[in-house]
Amino acid sequence: MQPVDPLTSAVLSAIILIALVVVLVFSLLGVRRPSTTTMAICAVLLVAAVTIVIVVRPIAIPAIAIPLTVIGIGAATIGGNPFTRRTLDIATGRRVRETEDGGILIVAAQHADPSHARTLMRGGTVIGYLERICTVLAIAVGFPEVIAAIIAVKGIGRFPELAEAEARERFIIGTLASLLWAGVIGLILRLILG
Fold it and tell me: What separation in angstroms does the CA of 95 have from each of 15, 92, 128, 130, 181?
């Protein structure tokens, strides 16, 4: 493969930086109320960025590398929240109620009354942020094996709560969506930073 000339590389790196800034801004706006439209725009921008770094293989110049890294880590960490929550809403048909800390309310089958609800998977929001920051950093620095440890630790910590079908479904879908989001951005950073 022909090396990309420095000017083309700088321009493409700047375009990818702008795309990641847009993803970060849209993600910050979507943290409160995730929207399918904004998450679809973010996904399209990320697919375009991945395509550029795989096909053209630009290398970020030092002046762009640092902001690209910081914005990329922010977009992966924060952006995964609305993406994962929107994915969970679509997958569960909004039949599972979330708590403020990212947990879910489960109402026992024998009680239709919400006052008998119990909370499962508390702290899901914080765990998701930590999971994504570890994932994007692991991929960006070239140690994707760390993802296996992340999943193992998360699974062990959540094991007692996974007896409930709603918790299992949410755990699997949420983890995969979160890791996919962070993994794509980690791949972009890994390839463009060289």
Answer: 39, 6, 21, 26, 24
3-state secondary structure of 97: strand
- For residues 167-190, give the mean pLDDT: 93
Separation between Cα atoms, residue 171 and residue 143, nearest integer Å: 24
For residue 97 the two structure tokens come to 């109620």
Please, are residues 91 and 39 in contact by the beta-carbon 8 Å criterion? Answer: no
CA end-to-end distance (rounded Å), the chain: 15
Q: Which has the closest alpha carbon to 171: 96, 108, 74?
A: 96
Q: Which of 187, 74, 80 is nearest to 141 (CA)?
A: 187
- Distance, CA of 139 to CA of 37 (rounded, Å): 27
pLDDT number for residue 150: 94
Question: What is the DSSP-derived secondary structure letter of residue 96?
Answer: S
Q: Which secondary structure element, helix H or strand E, spans residue 33, and what is its range?
A: none
Enter the tokens of residue 112. 């239709």
Is residue 11 over pLDDT 90? yes
Residue in this structure with the two tokens 């929207």, named with its chain if needed? 35
pTM exceeds 0.85 = yes
Task: Give the dihedral sign, CA 193/38/36/52.
Answer: negative
Helix (H) or strand (E) holding 73: helix 62-92
- State pLDDT tens for residues 55-95: 999 999 999 999 999 999 999 999 999 999 899 888 888 67
